[in-house]
Amino acid sequence: IGVRLVGSEMCIRDRQPAIEQAIMKNFNTERYAYVIYSKNYGIELEKYIGKDFDYIQADLQRALEDCLLADSRIYAISNLQFTQEGLDYMSITLDLQTESGVLPITLEVKK
């Protein structure tokens, strides 16, 4: 599974690039796969391979919250939207309320 950040419209502030980098590191690390990371780091994406889009959409919101809200610089997630684009591709858009302001991001998830 590959995840990448697409065209973030963030305002460049002192800490915002660090938050964006932390988000991508978190999204690109499968939770529980590496003993070097704590059990609270990363996201479980591999379990969604082959699952129905409706199931993924319902469960992935919880997984995103677990992943992102573990970072103390991120306060809340809003405007979460999932778009299925083919059988093995999904786009996720969301706004993160961070200590530096709102960070709108788009993620692509490919099998």
Descriptive key words:
four-stranded antiparallel β-sheet, 111 residues, 25% helix, 4 strands, alpha+beta
How does this structure look, described?
This protein is of the alpha+beta class. The protein is built from two helices and four strands. The protein has helices at 16-27, 53-68; strands spanning 2-6, 74-84, 89-98, 101-110. It has a four-stranded antiparallel β-sheet, with helices on one face. Residues 7-13 have low confidence and may be disordered.
| Spatial sequence of strands, sheet with the most strands | 1-4-3-2
Q: Give average pLDDT, whole number.
A: 81
Unreliable sequence segments: 7-13
Helix content: 25-40%
Strand content: 25-35%
Overview in brief:
This protein has 111 residues and is an alpha+beta fold.
How would you summarize the topology of this molecule?
Elements: E1 2-6, H1 16-27, H2 53-68, E2 74-84, E3 89-98, E4 101-110
Antiparallel strand pairs: 1-4, 2-3, 3-4
